[in-house]
Amino acid sequence: MRTVATKEALREALREPRRAGRTIGLVPTMGALHEGHLSLIRAARGRCDVVVVTLFVNPTQFGPGEDLDAYPHDFDRDAELAAEHGADLMFAPSVEEMYGGGVATAVEVTELTEVLCGAPEHRGSDHFRGVTTVVAKLLNIARPDVAFFGQKDAQQAIVIRRMVEDLDFPVRIDVEPTVREHDGLAMSSRNRYLSAGERERALALSAALDAAEAVAASDESSVDAILDAARARLADAGIDPEYLEARDAEDLSPVQSLNGRPILVAVAARIGRARLIDNVLIGT
Questions:
Q1: Which of 34, 37, 73, 122 does the annotation list as catalytic?
Q2: Beta bridge partners of 192
Q3: Domains and CATH numbers, the chain
C-alpha cells in the first residue's frame, strides 16, 4: 500500500488506473480503524480494482466541547490494518492540506440534517455541514466510482446519498451493514472511551433495538408501541437517551405506523465520555 499526503499526489496516483478504465473505490475514515472500517475496505476490495482509504480527522464536523482533541488515532496501526485488508492507497492529508487558510464554501443538505443527530439540542446541523463538505472534497479529489459507508452512521449515509443525487456526483454510494461485537455492541472508535461497567450498560442500545424489532415482527404496527419496548430496555439500564425515534428510512420524515416502507429506528445516548449511536431498519 502506498501512502500519500497531498491532493495532487492522490490525483497523480489515480491518473493511470483511471485512464486504464479500472474502477476506483473510496473508503473515507477518520482513523482509529476497527472491524467496521475493515469490512468497508474488504467490500471495496471485492467490488473495485483500486481501493483508496482516506484517513482524516475532520475538524469541521466537531462542535464546541466535542472530542476533537481526544479523538483516538494511531497512524501506523491504521496503515497496517488498511493494507492487510486490501487498500492500495491511503490518503492521509493534514488539515492545512485539506483546508489551507480556510474554506469560504460549504456544502449543506437541508431538512435531512435538522433531525436526529442534527437537531439543535444534539450535534446540530453544523456537524453534517462539516461532513458533507469534506466528503464532497474527497469525492472531487479521488473521483471514485463507488464510495463505501457504514449503516451504523445511517443518517450520515442518507445525507451523503442526497448530496450525491442533488449535485450529480458521478459516484455510487454503497452502505454496508453495521458490524457488531460478539455481544451486540455496534463497533465504534468511541467504544474505547467506555469503562468495563459503562460498556456493559452500553449493550442496552442494541438490546433496545432488538426489542423494537421483536415488537414489529409480532405484527404490531404502532410506532409508539415499538418505541415503548425499546425505551423500556434503555430504562432498565438507567439510560436516558438523547433521542430514540422512528423515521422513514429514505427521507427521515416522522412515521406513526408501519406502512410498508422501511423504517429507521435510531438511538443516541451518552454513556460516560462516549456519545454512542445505533439503529435498525424495520420493514426491509
A1: 37
A2: none
A3: 2-176 (3.40.50.620), 189-282 (3.30.1300.10)
